[in-house]
Amino acid sequence: MLDSVKISRRQSEIRQTLAGLAGKETPSEDEVRQMDTLDSEYRTNETRFRAALVAEDTERREAGAELETRSDREWSEMMDRFEMRQVALALDEGRQLSGQTAEIVSELRERGGYRGVPVPWEALEVRAGETIASGTPDPIQTRPIIDRLFPNSVAAQMGAQMISIDHGEIEWPVVTQGASVGWQTSETGAVGAAQAFQTSDKALAPDQTLGVQMKLSRKSMKQSGAALEQAVRRDINSAMAVEMDRVVFLGTGADGEPLGVIAGAATYGITDTTIGAAPTWGAFRAAVVRFMTANAAGSPSAVRLMIRPETWDAMDDAVFESGAAVTEFDRLTKNLPNIAMTTNGLADPAGSPESVSALLTTSAGGVAPIFVGKWGAVDLIRDPYSDATSGGLRLTALATLDVTVARPAQLEILSEIYT
After folding, report:
1. Please, are residues 414 and 360 in contact by the beta-carbon 8 Å criterion?
2. What is the per-residue pLDDT for 416?
3. Of 57, 102, 195, 346, which is most buried, counting CB atoms within 10 Å of its CB?
4. What is the CB neighbour count within 10 angstroms for residue 367?
5. Half-sphere exposure at residue 321, Cβ-oriented, CA atoms within 13 angstroms
6. Going by DSSP bridges, is the β-strand pair 303-307/161-165 parallel, antiparallel, or unpaired?
7. Cis ω for the linkage preceding 137 (within 30 of 0)
8. pLDDT for 321
9. What residues of the chain score a pLDDT lower than 70?
10. How far apart are CA 103 and CA 108, in angstroms?
11. What is d(CA 123, CA 224) in angstroms, rounded to the nearest whole number?
């Protein structure tokens, strides 16, 4: 407790005691001495109270500055204390949340409405040594855990930026027309006509909701104990990350999905260049040159490339020069260091001959090529009926997401790459 608060409370007690003593018409000698002592203490406390306020004001300023400059690492450490195990047990058994978990849930509820228990996105981070629900380890034995197979987020590797939104829609005004430049052609001539400053709004709207369902058996909950924390976190993270990566690029914009950048290339105005041949460094180099001539990229190292494994297979098998140990893929990686391979973000080979697509992106002027909006936190809801007869726990995690492209000039699709 602050010293100023302690002194203020003591002053209140002294005033209350003095009021009782002053009301007596004939106080005793002891009561008179008590009034003198209390009066002296009261005057001394007034001086102490002013000094405490001055000292605490400095402490408040320092504490405020520390809170304002709290680093992302400290925020992550606070979220590390969020326990998914408490959420699962609260939904299953009605157990009360406690500690940091209860505080975070309470704060999230104040910011938005949730049917179940709100779970912060940071709580779904992948951590070392975790397992999934279907691979619950036997506590009697020590054995390796085989995790669900999914790569790191391809959307993040391609420069997509995740935007946190509390509620409502959010827009980015992108300049489409601005200042004009011209030279004075004569002594009295004009330097050119001015043009209107125009922008185009790119909006993210909370119209698409992703649902992830999982089922925990009674045995897994009793057998795992504290390991349930890692199981729930890893399983929800895996399923959600794979689907988010897919819809960022291949989302159809129908059936509740957001419109992905490849499936919606025509809508976003993204250039789609047909290769119609086997993949070579020359084809990708031409796309990089188009980026640079459009002032979207300053160098080849600023360009990110996403390809399928079939493209790598075809390029690595193609020797650049007869007798030379240099393949087309060697030339590609030498000039483009940021290459991501995926089978999730690009469609499977199709057509005759079989062909695939590739995507190039770049960040220009600090603006990400792709924006992914996420609203609030993950809403974790319990289904109390489906598995009631077996004592199991069925959970549904709901997340509201959307995708948009700010500047289509920062992306280009290469289609009909023969494999």
Report:
1. yes
2. 92
3. 346
4. 15
5. 5
6. unpaired
7. no
8. 64
9. 1, 59-77, 124-152, 167-180, 194-202, 223-229, 320-324
10. 9
11. 19
Q: What is the per-residue pLDDT for 64?
A: 59
- The whole-angstrom separation of Cα 250 and Cα 262 is 6
**Whether this model's pTM surpasses 0.70:** no
Angle at which helices 328-335 and 281-293 pack, to 10 degrees?
30
Q: Are 387 and 219 in contact (CB under 8 A)?
A: no
289 CB-near residues (< 8 Å, 6+ apart): none
- Rounded to whole angstroms, the Cα distance separating 314 from 335 reads 18
pLDDT at site 139 = 40
Domains, in order of start, for the chain: 1-19+33-60 (no CATH), 119-175+198-419 (3.90.1690)
Q: Report d(CA 268, CA 203) in Å as an integer.
A: 12
Q: Which residues lie closer than 8 Å to 372 by C-beta, 6 or more apart?
A: 155, 160, 161, 162, 163, 244, 248, 401, 402, 403
- Half-sphere exposure for 215 (CA within 13 Å, toward CB): 9
| DSSP string over 175-194 | EEE--------STT--S---
Instruction: Give me the residue label for tokens 């689907």.
Output: 243
